[in-house]
Amino acid sequence: MPSIVKPLVAHPSLAKNALGLTIRDYEGQMSTLCAGCGHDSITAAIVKALWELSTPPHRLAKLSGIGCSSKTPTYFVNGAHGFNSAHGRMPAIATGANAANRELTYVGVSGDGDSLSIGIGHLCHAIRRNLNMLYVIENNGVYGLTKGQFSASTDVGSKSKKGEANKMSPIDPIQLALSIGATFVARSFSGDKAQLVPILKAAIAHRGFALVDVISPCVTFNDHEGSTKSYKYTRGATHAATESDFVPPASEIVANIGPAGSTSIRMHDGSVLQFTRVPDNYDVTDRGAAMKYLREHPGQIATGVLFADEGIPDMHEMAGSPAGALVNVPFEKLCPGSSALESLMANFR
Amino acid sequence: MRSRINDFAIKLANVNGTGSASANSLIMQAIFRMGVPVSGKNLFPSNIQGLPTWYEIRVNPKGYTARALDYDLMVAMNAQTYARDIKEVRTGSYVLYDSSWPLDADLHRDDVTFIGVPLARLCNENFKEVRERILMKNIATAGALIELLNIDADVVAHLLEEKYGKKKGLRESNVKALKLGGDYIRENYAFPLPFHLETMHANDDKILIDGNTATALGCIYGGATVAAWYPITPATSVMDNFKAFADKYRKDPETGASNYMFLQAEDELAAIGMVIGASWNGARAFTSTAGPGVSLMNELLGLAYYAEIPAVVIDVQRVGPSTGMPTRTQQGDILECAYASHGDTKHILLFPSSPAECFEMAPQCFDLSEQFQTPVFLLSDLDIGMNDWVTPKLKWDDSYVPNRGKVLTAEQLEKMNKFFRYLPEEGTAVPARTLPGVHSKGAFFTRGSGHNKFGGYTEVPDEYQEVMDRLLAKHKEAAGYVPPAIIERRAGAKVGMITIGGCEPAVREALDILDEMGRPMDFMRIRAFPFTAEVEAFLEEHDYCYVVEQNRDGHLCSLLTLETPVAKDKIRPVLVYSGFPLSAKNVLDILAVNVEELNAIYR
To answer: pLDDT by residue (tens digit) across B40-78?
Structure first.
């Protein structure tokens, strides 16, 4: 994708994280997306989340498929390896990458075309494997790079720029993920950084696959009257089902507990995620309740962490992998050697 | 009359799912242990139970073990196929059948000796359970064959001991069933038959193994840690065996952790994606598949080629196009693999001819794939992969060090001013690569979109073309490192016979027969693409060359014409593609069609 080089001059007064890095150290190339694109706000939130988490840039792997959303890994953390793969295949590439080296932090950025059409099978199976990664869907309900076709997340009745209304039922990634055993699902809005950053941090800390569906209006092809993913519509229809406040494991846990009945979840890495239940009976640890809540509030975009379960083993735990990266296992441990082969040959006589 | 000792072929006709496979392999293994060169070809249906299945065994004292096509004994145990099975044997041969029921009069042939053994009746009288009666009928048949063919009874007893040592009941049933069949022959017929076995010592340093098992073992020895696949015939047993070997050899003795990751993917698109992801991160990763899987993998193979990421694909070829005949063999994926994916792509292919070579070439695939940072295919096929072959004992050289290619370390990166992914040093077309997680100076953006030599996105014509030209040079450079062709010359040879993969035994046999007919020909077996220098020289030095391969369209012929300067009229395709393993007879029959040309050149 085309990109523009940004000057790398950091203001001396910029705050530093635990690694002594400023937020500029987590930036990438200049975005070439349309001005006002929701995706750029998500990029900024990812930058902030990774900086706040003090993730070493070179220990991050950024992956994507094809589409506007999939261009964005170029726009954050220059010091990390990136992989802009093929349309819809990012979950498969990420699965292999993670299989080889479980020690890195994996951030995948995808879109609704990438994740809900061409790559929906891979997404589903990455969820089933509980692959340890943050998986962001930058969901704008439209094919932007090919200029405005409906996507699988376009709502019924939502109109294209040319005025045609979609008649087919949309796929809701949150409900899909919940139904196949996702261990962390959240939704947010690209225009709400205050909510998005803590969600992203919690998702990165999660043990396993963390799906974050971010409604991200397309200013060029899907921000008009009649679209249900326009800025105007989205701002009116989102409501926070939960609020999250992420507390990193190294820090003191700040008491920011909401009304009675709020739930704290200790993340796999020891950090704690706090949820304030907006509806009285919403429990983020109850899959059935989350699905019921979403079903009972059609037309509303429930945001926040909608479900999280830290008790499910991830892909490596299921496989009994070594604690370190497979790529670091020395060859001597992998090759059984000539004498083992010699004795094995007796089985083939 | 030529000696018939250790020189004959038998065909066993059965119904699949009735336990015939274990009786077949018992006989095959016993002959192997008697030290006699032997081959077994399983001609089976794409079905689990109830359809006709055949097993052919050929023994030959000189070691010709390609399919015979001429049967000395038909073991006709499937009433559904009696008619065609009895018709297939040649004059003077024998038919063993189950005489529990009379054979239809119209099946009778005067030129064939029928040996009736009431196998079903004997088993019904001696075994109680229905299932046991069915299974033991096969073993009773084996008992009859032991007498008819003079198979060493001690060897068989040993085999049963090894197989059922701890399962006393099963062993006793097997011994009893063998005796039922054997006793009946001894009491009612002259035995052994004029063609039969006698102990030899041709197999002392050999083993009996199928190619898929050997390939899996090669992947273990080559240090593969990530195996991603989608189940498909005939490649499934590569992964079944990899998993079994990994469980045996890859459990960390201290922690009990599994030093491998076994990923059964949702489809082949994902399987190759996982291989590419793992290789991008520096693991030795592979997938095993067949033609339909390669078709699906085309998309990401192009990505791996263009972004220069290693990937090893084991393609156990079966009959295409489309679903084709999944349990039949062919070499129909050569062109698909050579140029897999859209746009200009060219891949490295290795062609094993035996299980031993599968074992040898699997680690070479990883070495080449990492050295040249590109996909490498091991093009096996169903015949090699799923049939048991007598092959030299597999050997491993403990001094082997994996060739990981040019991978920059954190220390090297630290010293560098700036790293550019696609900028090779002088004298090579292969640039250095970096792995994620090592150093932020090594970070770059891997992409399948247009990129320049620095690794940056580009749509600039010259920048795009420069990278594409280097990729072509890289493929050519690989010719210096792939396994060379095997060439054997004969005195007086005027033409050459070129072949590939599992055709080798049939071609060698055909060449010996041709030599006896005064038509000596030089032999070349191509083992890799890109073609090595001697391939061009061989084509150059012969008036013309036959090219023996198992597909309709002459994939190897095309590849030779496309990738070497050879004139098209110097290539004579010899194409056999009906799905069964090749026989020397197939080759000779095709040559006979144009015998005038051959006669003219040897006049």
So the answer is: 999 999 888 889 999 999 999 999 999 999 999 999 999
Per-residue burial over B127-138, b = 16 or more CB atoms within 10 Å of its CB, e = otherwise: beeeebbbbbbb
CATH of A23-334, one of 3.40.830.10, 3.30.70.60, 3.40.50.150, 3.40.50.970: 3.40.50.970
Is the preceding peptide bond at B520 cis, omega within 30 degrees of 0? no
Residue contact A96–B226, C-beta within 8 A: yes
Residues 454-513 of B with CB under 8 A from A: 456-457, 459
Residues 307-336 of A with CB under 8 A from B: 316, 319-323, 325-327, 329, 331, 333-336
Q: What are phi and psi of A341, to 5 degrees?
A: -65, -45
Yes or no, beta carbons of A100 and B258 under 8 Å apart: no
> Which residue bears the tokens 């391939």?
B535
Distance of CA B210 to the CA centre of its chain: 8
Flag if A101 and B445 touch (Cβ within 8 Å).
no
Name, in order, each residue with C-beta under 8 angstroms of B166's C-beta and a sequence gap of 6 or more.
Answer: none
Distant-in-sequence contacts of B98-107, Cβ < 8 A, 24+ apart: B98/B137, B107/B82, B107/B83
* Residue predicted with more confidence, B350 or A236: B350
The dihedral over CA atoms of A265, A268, A272, A275, expressed in degrees to the nearest 10, equals -30
The Cα–Cα gap between A69 and A64 comes to 8
Radius of gyration of chain A (CA): 21
Instruction: State the fold for domain B8-188.
Output: Pyruvate-ferredoxin Oxidoreductase; domain 3 (3.40.920)
Summarised one tens digit per residue, pLDDT across range B552-580 is 999 999 999 999 999 999 999 999 999 99
Bond preceding residue B192 cis, omega within 30 of 0 = yes
Of B274, B303, B444, the CB nearest to A96: B274
| Gap from B91 CA to chain A (nearest CA, Å) | 35
Alpha-carbon gap, residue B554 to A300, rounded angstroms? 61
Q: Which residues contact A281 (CB under 8 A, 6 or more apart)?
A: A289
CB contact under 8 A, A103 and B277: no
A93 chain-B contacts, CB cut-off 8 A: 273-274, 276-277, 280
Domain B486-602, what fold?
Rossmann fold (3.40.50)
